[in-house]
Amino acid sequence: MNKITEASFQRTYIIFGAVFVLFTVAITMFLLLIYDSTIMFILIIFAYSLAVIILAYIFITVLGKKVTRSIKTIDEIMDNAISGKKNMYTGYEENMLSSFESKMYRFIAMSKSTTDEIEKERNKIKSLISDISHQTKTPVANIMLYSELLLDGYKLNQEQKELASGIKLQSEKLRWLIESLIKMSRLETGIINSVNKTLMPVFQTISTSIGTVFSYAEKKNIQIQVCCDEDIKAYHDVKWTSEAFVNILENAIKYTPEWGKIDVIVSQYEMFTRIDIKDTGIGINEGELNLIFKRFYRSADVSQYDGVGIGLYLTREIISSEGGYIKVKSKLNKGSVFSVFLPNTK
Length: 346
Prior knowledge:
It is a single chain. With about 350 residues, the chain is an alpha+beta fold. Helices cover about 60% and strands about 15% of the residues. The strands form two sheets. The chain has a five-stranded mixed beta sheet, covered by helices on one side. Strands 1-3 form a two-stranded antiparallel sheet. The chain is elongated, with a radius of gyration of 36 Å. The two termini are about 30 Å apart.
């Protein structure tokens, strides 16, 4: 039994004991007042009261020890059940404890069986995801390569060029979709165990992410500015956090008109490091702010843009797996601000 529980029991015994003693003394005084008080009568009353108090003390002490011993026995049963040791109680006095222990062993066995089944299913999913990743990577890469060879190495008329360009574009979309689905599945099933959080400078991770999307932003003449002290750090995995930032930045570029602007502002708080990614895009309807992080969710307002609604879902899963969280504020036709909070303390 822990100390807090023992102390609470002791307080209960003391309170009840004190109340019982006061009650006995009060009754004794009352009897002495209403009856003729001879010496023999007084001695008998005091002897009786003292005997009652002593018996009450013995009863409370024995009860306390019994309760303490029973709880310690239950604690021992649970420890043995968890560790797999068997110490069954078979006596008549211990029949309730024996029943409790038997039920505890059955519960532990059922839980272990369920855990084993979950682990088997997880391994199957892991194998399936690996197979999908391996089986689709080469065909998609070959299709993209052949389409590039057609565009670069052969004289094609305008219609043929459009068809080859279409093949290349759709292949790139298919590759991105397959990669996103694989990453999402790994996150959902807990297969990604390579999210190793270390205290690293945030500026380095942001720079890597911007480098990934820079050409995309350049095509739309979108300016990206970063305001971040190079000494600001946070606990995160550089690879996966960079992936999360890329998803946010790609969305910002996609939904921001040409000649727009994206600001990345980093602030350090006591327990979290905040990374704000602010754009001048089309914004998000207020009623959809709680929906955009759902898997495959896409607003009707952006149906003309490419996408399947995985990026932000994946971003939230990555940030959550690192012990952080993400918030968003937005105004239609004025832009959005995605705020990522990463822990900077353990």
